[in-house]
Amino acid sequence: MPAYQRILLKLSGEALMGDDAFGINRATIVRIVDEIAEVTRLGVQVAIVIGGGNIFRGVAGGSVGMDRATADYMGMLATVMNSLALADTMNKAGLVARVMSAIGIEQVVEPYVRPKALQYLEEGKVVVFAAGTGNPFFTTDTAAALRGAEIGAEMVLKATKVDGVYTADPNKDPSATRYTTISFDEAMVKNLQVMDATAFALCRDQKLPVKVFSIFKPGALRNVVMGADEGTLVHV
Ligand code: UDP
C-alpha cells in the first residue's frame, strides 16, 4: 500500500536533459515517465510541476541584459514546452495526462482551473501544471508549493540530482551525511538548500512536507511513495 494518495512531483527542467547539454533527452524522459507510471499503478494521484531550466531561465544564460520580467515569461514558456513533451510521453506510455497552464495559451494547452485539476486527479489522470505560477520573479519550486497546497497534496516531492539534504555539499565534503528527516526550522537555521526561499516559506506555512530525492536513482520515486527510507523528508 502506498503511503500517500495524492502527491505533487516537482521535476527540474534539467532532469529531462540526461547527459545532453540542453533540451530534452528522449531516453531520459521515457525513463522518468516509466517511474511515474509505476506510481500511478499503485493508485497514487500524481500532479507534476516541471521547470524550464533545460531550455531557458529568466536569470541566466541568454537572458543576461534582458528585462527580467520578459525573460521570466520566456522561462515560463519553456516550462510549457517541457510540459507538452512530458504529457505526450505519458500519453504514449498509456497514461492519461492533462496539461494546465498558468498563463493564457489556450490554443496549445487548457488554462489552469482548480476544480478541473481536482476532477482530473480523481479520475486518475496525471495533471501537469505548466507556466509555473504565471508570474515573473517566481520559480517553479514556488509553483510546486502553491499548486501542492491548492490541490491538497500530502507532500511535495522535489526531484533533484542529489538523493536528499546533506549536512554539507557531498560533492565537496566526503564526510557529509544525508538527513533522513529534518524540520523546516532546522533546515533554515543550518542554511541547508531545500528549495528557494519563497517555496520553502510557503510549504512551511502550509505545513506541507517536502521530500527531497534523486530522480536519477531508479526506483527512488516508488520508494518515496511507499514510505521507504529514501531521500530527506522536510517536515514542520
Ligand atoms: N518562471 C517564472 N515564474 C514562475 C516559474 C518560472 O518567471 O512562476 C520562469 C523563470 O524565469 C525561471 C524559468 O521560468 O527561471 C524556469 O523555471 P525554473 O528556473 O524554476 O526551472 P528549473 O530550474 O526547475 O528547471
Secondary-structure topology with pairs:
Layout: E1 6-11, H1 26-41, E2 45-50, H2 68-92, E3 97-101, E4 110-111, H3 114-122, E5 126-130, H4 140-150, E6 155-160, E7 181-183, H5 184-189, H6 197-205, E8 210-214, H7 220-225, E9 232-235
Parallel strand pairs: 1-2, 1-6, 2-5, 3-4, 3-5, 6-8, 7-9
Antiparallel strand pairs: 8-9
Helix pairs in contact: 1-2, 4-6
Bound molecules: uridine-5'-diphosphate.
Structure description:
The protein is of the alpha/beta class and 236 residues long. The protein has a single domain, classed as Acetylglutamate kinase-like (Carbamate kinase). The protein is 35% helix and 18% strand. The chain has 7 helices and 9 strands; from the N terminus they run E-H-E-H-E-E-H-E-H-E-E-H-H-E-H-E. It has helices spanning 26-41, 68-92, 114-122, 140-150, 184-189, 197-205, 220-225, and strands at residues 6-11, 45-50, 97-101, 110-111, 126-130, 155-160, 181-183, 210-214, 232-235. The protein is globular and about 50 Å long. The two termini are 24 Å apart. The protein binds uridine-5'-diphosphate (UDP). Keywords: ATP-binding, Cytoplasm, Kinase, Nucleotide-binding, Pyrimidine biosynthesis, Transferase. ATP binds at residues 10-13, 53, 57, 160, 166, 169. Pathway: Pyrimidine metabolism; CTP biosynthesis via de novo pathway; UDP from UMP (UMPK route): step 1/1.
Radius of gyration: 17 Å
Q: Can you write the helix and strand succession as a string?
A: EHEHEEHEHEEHHEHE
Mind describing the biggest β-sheet?
A: 9 strands, mixed
Task: Tell me the CATH topology.
Answer: Carbamate kinase
Dominant shape = globular
